[in-house]
TrEMBL record:
Binding site for L-histidine: E84, G85, T86, R115, Q129, E133, R258, Y262, Y263
Reactions performed catalytically: tRNA(His) + L-histidine + ATP = L-histidyl-tRNA(His) + AMP + diphosphate + H(+)
PANTHER family: HISTIDINE--TRNA LIGASE, MITOCHONDRIAL-RELATED, HISTIDYL-TRNA SYNTHETASE
Upper lineage: Bacteria, Bacillati, Actinomycetota, Actinomycetes, Jiangellales
UniProt xrefs under InterPro entries: aa-tRNA-synth_II, aa-tRNA-synth_II/BPL/LPL, Anticodon-bd, Anticodon-bd_dom_sf, His-tRNA-ligase, HisRS-like_core, HisRS/HisZ, HisRS_anticodon
Keywords per UniProt: Aminoacyl-tRNA synthetase, ATP-binding, Cytoplasm, Ligase, Nucleotide-binding, Protein biosynthesis
Protein name: Histidine--tRNA ligase
Domain Aminoacyl-transfer RNA synthetases class-II family profile: 34-323
Record carries keyword Protein biosynthesis: yes
């Protein structure tokens, strides 16, 4: 047998059935609470001007310095495959003037994202997110709403092991004093050259350094919670109490930081222990200054993105069955050419009537076709032999019980609809 010469690029993979359906089901479950809560659907291009991410996500972040798929087009434009969705969605809001209409603007999206990361379990170069953003309000109820909707989405998939980590990074009222205090502390540590540079450039990022020796040294570091202004503290307390009202458990994590620079105040991550090192199944936060960074007016925002690939892995880690269904309810088995023509019309009519149906093709015999019927997941097979045709009937076989009965061909669609209702 010939070996295939092409493979999916490193860090990417194909989704074939039934995993393909499982991924669709995961995305649907993430979107369902949003669609039922007043969020409109937005779709932006898979690539953007490179500067959008450099500005929006932050020049010194890992994403921008190491992980972007950037290239110059034939026309000389510098573009990047989107590594995340928030900067593009905000760009689209500003460009389309949505912020000039009624506020807040609530949006959701779903799509592919690209990061040139070192591939490992749960970390891919092409991955799938469902995201949500609320723009034009500082109301802490929006922050809480988003967290509740994410928790409800995970619950609806049957997941029980997702934990919510919560922090506030403070606004421009609180951050400078904290940044200075953290910097002062970090400068006393014995750190390598690159980390020392990070201390000067972006000290909060050092909190995210996973190396055990750094984590140990950070145990004594000042925490943001002690530096929050009264306004920021009140905002954070309101988010916390609204979550409690909604019976959402969360863990206060004053050292939580995330790999994107746009965050202000509320910051959260959804983590799962079944995934190994890549434990974040989703995350987000508030970004009250991003619009201005992108040249827009003041437009505070908050949002999240949930990782569909990692959520599916978390479901497997909990032993949950793959969600989503492959297959049909009815499978037609014609025997002979005349029956095949009749079956084609019948299956078309069933599909048009909203019944998921398929038909054996290629003139297979009864045995092969019945095997195909079993594989299809159908509850009923409709066998049409030449004698059945003469009598104007088909045999409807219940594939669970094995029982079979003749049904008039012109009543078949209605009959099956009733059986399946
Ligand atoms: P993020 O934390 O970079 O946030 O990504 C959100 C989720 O996407 C992660 O928690 C993870 O589940 C998934 N993810 C990220 N990178 C990978 C990867 N290489 N392989 C597999 N899954 C991955 C954002 O992207 C922000 N835009 C979220 C946000 C929206 N903040 C405010 N609004």
């Amino acid at each position: 047998m010939n070996q295939p010469i092409f493979r999916a690029p490193r860090g990417t993979f194909d989704l074939v059935p039934p995993r393909g359906e499982a991924m669709l089901a995961v995305r649907d479950a993430m979107a369902a609470p949003l669609r039922a809560s007043g969020y409109g659907y937005v779709e932006t291009p898979s690539f953007e001007e490179t500067r959008l991410f450099a500005r929006g996500v932050g020049e010194s972040t890992d994403i921008v310095t190491k992980e972007m798929y950037s290239f110059t087009t034939r026309g000389g434009d510098d573009v990047t495959l989107r590594p995340e969705g928030t900067a593009p969605v905000l760009r689209a809001v500003l460009e389309n003037g949505l912020h000039r209409g009624a506020l807040p603007v609530k949006l959701w999206y779903s799509g592919s994202y690209y990061r040139y990361e070192r591939p490992q379990k749960g970390r891919y170069r092409h991955f799938s997110q469902v995201g949500a953003e609320i723009l034009g309000t500082e109301d802490p109820a929006s922050d809480a709403e988003l967290i509740v909707l994410a928790v409800d989405a995970y619950r609806s998939l049957g997941l029980s092991g997702v934990r919510v980590l919560l922090n506030s990074l403070g606004s421009s009222e609180s951050r400078p004093a904290y940044r200075a205090a953290l910097q002062e502390y970090l400068r006393t540590l014995d750190l390598d050259e690159e980390t020392r540079r990070r201390v000067e450039l972006n000290p909060l990022r050092v909190l995210d350094d996973k190396r055990p020796e750094i984590q140990k040294a950070l145990a004594q570091a000042p925490v943001i919670t002690d530096y929050l202004s009264s306004g920021d503290r009140e905002h954070h307390e309101t988010v916390r109490s609204l979550l409690a009202d909604a019976a959402v458990d969360f863990i206060d994590d004053p050292r939580l930081v995330r790999g994107l620079d746009y965050y202000t105040r509320t910051l959260f991550e959804f983590v799962h222990d079944g995934l190994g090192a890549q434990s974040a199944v989703g995350g987000g936060g508030r970004y009250d200054g991003l619009s201005e960074l992108l040249g827009g007016p003041r437009l505070p925002g908050v949002g999240w993105a949930l990782g569909a690939d990692r959520t599916l892995l978390a479901m497997q880690a909990e032993g949950l069955p793959l969600p989503g269904r492959v297959g049909v309810d009815v499978f037609a088995v014609p025997l002979g050419d005349d029956a095949a023509r009749r079956a084609f019309g019948l299956v078309t009519a069933l599909r048009r009537a909203g019944v998921a149906a398929d038909v054996a093709t290629g003139g297979r015999g009864l045995k092969g076709s019945m095997k195909a019927a079993d594989r299809s997941g159908a509850r009923y097979a409709v066998v049409i032999g030449s004698r059945d045709l003469e009598q104007g009937v088909a045999q409807v076989k219940d594939l669970g019980s094995g029982e079979q009965e003749p049904v008039a061909l012109d009543r078949l669609v209605e009959h099956l609809r009733v059986l399946l209702a």
